[in-house]
């Protein structure tokens, strides 16, 4: 690789991790809605499609053919769902999750050795092709998590063979994930109001479950699945983890660690997980049957950011007609209007890719009203890049900062646009003003 390609390669790995997170997060949201009978949100499908498309595009430039092939198939399937040419089924959910897990392995292999060899994609490609071709696709039953109570669920499949090909990489990755789990559960014990830590724990557990499925380590996947279900409940209810739940979670992590050590030493597992499985099932039944009171506290946006002299922040107040329409849309949704000052480090070679990720993160929770300079005009300039963004969102400053926590990106300032300034631009009154004038 040339020096430029080396820089792009590093940037590709870093950015792809973010896009993979988006793919998994959105798919989890879609899966939850699917099981409850809700309609698939188009925004989630659009986000997933763009993530797969972006990974494929950069992989094409670098010549990573397996990633190109896999993401192209994912993209095609997601487009069918976007166009409503096919409905969501459990087979589609499983196929996409499996593809995300394989993509994770491919990126891990690239990070480790710089090549894709050793990771197979043919099973995932065939699954998606079968779905696209309509081969034996049946609508999935919308099952609930009561299936956890099945006593047979703790027994590995007859004739199970552990996948030796990926075992060494799997064991190493699980060791890292165990360290992260212990770290975040300790944080959850100390910081009761830190709900983001529950999201992070959920993501780690989902990764362990998926990786265990690829390597065919049934016992670890089953423990991780049950722990993931408990974390999912707390995540959906936006509740801090209870002390007894955290204690049980540590026991579960110890079990995962023991299973991993067994794999490392003997390349096999001969451990009975029925006791921990029952404890986890009982815990889920207890918390899901309890009266859940949503006492979500509104977080005050108290992060005062430094004043930065961004040219974008002065010229950004001049709106085109399209931008005025965006502002009006945010106004009608009763969103707060923020002016963001961001900088992208000169060390980031492919700034356009970083900007695309910033856009994706912001669109999750609001409306981008104006963006300076325009994303279409941003190239891979060596110098630090300053961005000025007008953004409408129901979330607060702290949440915006967290969503933009990306390598090489600094949030230099966040200020709220005065309501009078908003009214002047769109030529209307705020709802509060309308009430006063109508009295």
Question: What labels describe this entry?
Answer:
single chain, 439 residues, alpha+beta, Four Helix Bundle (Hemerythrin (Met), subunit A), Alpha-Beta Plaits, four-stranded antiparallel sheet, 16 helices, 60% helix
Description:
By secondary structure, the chain is of the alpha+beta class. Helix content is 60%, strand content 7%. It contains 16 helices and four strands. It has helices at residues 3-35, 42-62, 65-82, 90-113, 122-132, 167-190, 196-215, 218-237, 243-266, 274-289, 311-315, 321-332, 351-364, 397-403, 419-426, 431-437; strands at residues 336-344, 367-372, 385-393, 409-416. Helix 3 (65-82) packs antiparallel against helix 4 (90-113). The longest helix is centred in the N-terminal third of the chain and has 33 residues, at 3-35. The protein starts with a helix and ends with a helix.
């Amino acid at each position: 690789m040339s020096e430029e390609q080396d820089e792009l390669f590093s940037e590709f790995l870093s950015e792809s991790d973010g896009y993979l997170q988006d793919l998994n997060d959105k798919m989890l949201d879609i899966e939850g809605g699917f099981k409850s009978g809700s309609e698939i949100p188009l925004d989630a499908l659009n986000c997933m499609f763009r993530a797969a498309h972006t990974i494929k595009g950069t992989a094409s430039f670098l010549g990573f053919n397996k990633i190109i092939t896999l993401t192209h198939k994912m993209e095609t399937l997601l487009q069918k769902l976007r166009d409503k040419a096919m409905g969501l089924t459990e087979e589609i959910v499983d196929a996409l999750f499996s593809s995300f897990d394989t993509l994770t392995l491919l990126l891990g292999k690239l990070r480790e050795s710089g090549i894709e060899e050793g990771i197979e994609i043919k099973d995932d490609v065939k699954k998606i092709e079968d779905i696209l071709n309509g081969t034996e696709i049946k609508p999935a039953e919308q099952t609930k998590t009561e299936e956890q109570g099945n006593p047979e669920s703790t027994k590995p499949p007859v004739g199970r063979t552990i996948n030796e090909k990926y075992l060494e990489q799997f064991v190493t990755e699980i060791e890292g994930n165990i360290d992260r789990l212990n770290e975040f559960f300790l944080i959850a014990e100390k910081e009761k109001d830190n709900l983001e830590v529950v999201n992070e724990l959920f993501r780690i557990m989902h990764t362990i479950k998926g990786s265990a499925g690829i390597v065919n380590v049934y016992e670890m996947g089953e423990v991780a699945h049950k722990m993931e279900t408990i974390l999912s409940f707390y995540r959906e209810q936006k509740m801090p983890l209870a002390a007894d739940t955290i204690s049980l979670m540590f026991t579960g992590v110890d079990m995962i660690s023991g299973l991993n050590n067994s794999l490392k030493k003997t390349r096999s597992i001969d451990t009975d997980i029925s006791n921990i499985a029952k404890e986890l099932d009982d815990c889920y039944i207890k918390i899901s049957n309890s009266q859940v009171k949503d006492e979500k506290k509104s977080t005050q946006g108290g992060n005062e950011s430094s004043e930065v002299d961004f040219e974008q922040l002065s010229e950004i107040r001049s709106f085109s007609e399209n931008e005025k329409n965006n502002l009006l849309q945010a106004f009608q949704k009763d969103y707060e209007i923020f002016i963001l000052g961001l900088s992208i480090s000169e060390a980031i070679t492919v700034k356009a890719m970083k900007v695309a990720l910033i856009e994706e993160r912001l669109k999750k929770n609001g409306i981008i009203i104006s963006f300076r300079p325009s994303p279409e005009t941003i190239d891979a300039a060596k110098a630090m890049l300053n961005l000025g963004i007008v953004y409408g969102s129901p979330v607060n400053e702290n949440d915006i900062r967290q969503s933009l926590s990306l390598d090489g990106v600094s949030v230099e300032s966040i200020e709220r646009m005065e309501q009078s300034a908003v009214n002047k631009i769109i030529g209307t009154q705020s709802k509060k003003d309308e009430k006063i004038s109508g009295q």
